[in-house]
TrEMBL record:
This is Transcriptional regulator. Keywords: DNA-binding, Transcription, Transcription regulation. GO terms for molecular function: DNA binding; DNA-binding transcription factor activity. InterPro entries: ArsR-like_HTH (IPR011991), HTH_ArsR_DNA-bd_dom (IPR001845), Metal_resp_trans_reg (IPR051011), WH-like_DNA-bd_sf (IPR036388), WH_DNA-bd_sf (IPR036390). It comes from Methylobacterium nonmethylotrophicum.
Length: 105
């Protein structure tokens, strides 16, 4: 992953509303959630507000939408989530030098 993409994803998740939306979709699993059900779960009363937040998450590659007849299903894109978490954790403590006591020198 490149730093610019990571920054955009973290910025999108930096909104409390978008973070609640994303967590609800992650929790829902691969089946995702219909927009109306997602709206109820996260407590966003205005459909236009939810649409705005979803659009930001879709643009950053964290969420997808699929139309099934008259229902719009939203899903977390798990590979993108794993890439983002991996990017943050990949170099954890890489510059730490160990003094043998378990603490950074």
């Amino acid at each position: 992953m490149n730093v610019e993409q990571v920054a955009k994803q973290l910025e999108a998740l930096g909104s409390p509303a978008r973070l609640r939306i994303y967590r609800a979709l992650v929790r829902a699993g691969h089946a995702g959630l219909p927009v109306r059900q997602l709206q109820e779960r996260v407590g966003i009363s205005a459909a236009s507000t939810l649409s705005h937040h979803l659009h930001r998450l879709i643009l950053t590659g964290l969420v997808s939408q699929e139309r099934q007849a008259t229902t719009l299903i939203c899903r977390a894109i798990y590979p993108a989530m794993n890439d983002l978490v991996g990017f943050l954790a990949d170099e954890c403590c890489a510059d730490e030098t160990c003094s043998g006591t378990g603490e950074a020198a």
